[in-house]
Amino acid sequence: MTNLPTPEPTTQNKPRLIPVTAWPKEHAWPPVGGLRHLIFHEKTNGFDRVVKRVAGRVLIDETAFFQWVEAQNTKADQ
Predict the structure, then answer these.
(1) Would you call 15 helix, strand, or coil by DSSP?
(2) In the chain, helix, strand, coil percent, each to 5?
(3) In what order do the strands lie in the sheet with 57-61?
(4) Does residue 48 form part of some domain?
(5) CB hemisphere CA count around 14 (13 angstroms)
(6) Is residue 70 part of a domain?
(7) How many domains is the chain built from?
(8) Containing domain of residue 35, as a range?
(9) How many CB atoms neighbour CB 46 within 10 A?
């Protein structure tokens, strides 16, 4: 029986989760205050798909954020 190496998980399958306070280091928009506003109203604006809460920290799923932005843009065009 040969020992085959275990494939390492790829980062492509994992969402990139960014703490709200670290968001400005990665992206210029929206500022932290804008994110907090979106998070406060997450149940009514659909932003709940973007927010992840882990051990008391509020994280933003980067991929889901840009999908949410695109969906908002699509709604505005209709």
Answers:
(1) coil
(2) 50, 15, 35
(3) 17-19, 57-61, 51-54
(4) yes
(5) 7
(6) yes
(7) 1
(8) 17-77
(9) 14
Amino acid at 20: V
Indicate whether 6 belongs to any domain.
Answer: no
**3-class DSSP state of 77:** helix
Q: Is the pTM of this model over 0.90?
A: no
CB 62 within 8 A of CB 16: yes
Q: Assess if residue 44 is contained within a domain.
A: yes
d(CA 71, CA 65): 10
Beta strand ranges found along the chain (DSSP E): 17-19, 51-54, 57-61
Q: What is the pLDDT of residues 7-65, one digit of tens each?
A: 565 556 788 999 999 999 999 999 999 999 999 999 999 999 999 999 999 999 999 99
> Rounded to whole angstroms, how far apart are CA atoms 56 and 28?
25
